[in-house]
Amino acid sequence: MARHVLIIANDPPYGTERSWNAVRLAGSLARRPDAEVRVFLLGDAVGCAVRGQEVPEGHYRLDRMLAAAARHGAVTGCCGTCVDARGLTGAQLVEGARRSTLDELTDWTLWADRVITF
Q: Mind naming one GO cellular-component term on file for this protein (predicted)?
């Protein structure tokens, strides 16, 4: 029986390590055959899902990490209101991440056996 895990991130992609830790955990869980993982990005965390991030050499790339988690079955939703507030579009989001809603976050929260926030 699969465990259902929802990870909610709120912090910006860079400047703190909270979102990095959220995405690392999502990727690790997604590789487990007994886990179904969903990630919801709120506030500045929607920046984690912007494709083509340019960061210093050797620095982690959250867009690539989210895409890798998606290849292992993780689903990523980005708060649509938060995406709009930052002038982003759905086309800018990495494959495996999509625009979402508070209603979907509510549904995912009820679906989850565990909810982890960062």
A: cytosol
Question: Is-contact 4 111, C-beta < 8 A?
Answer: yes
pTM above 0.90, yes or no: yes
Cα–Cα dist 8/91, whole Å: 22
| Residue range(s) defining the domain that contains residue 85 | 3-117
- And the tokens for 80? 């649509």
pLDDT at position 59 is: 82
* Count: domains in the chain: 1
The Cα–Cα gap between 4 and 40 comes to: 14
Burial letters 27-61, b for 16+ CB under 10 A, else e: bebbeeeebbbbbbbbebbbbbbbeebeeeeeeeb
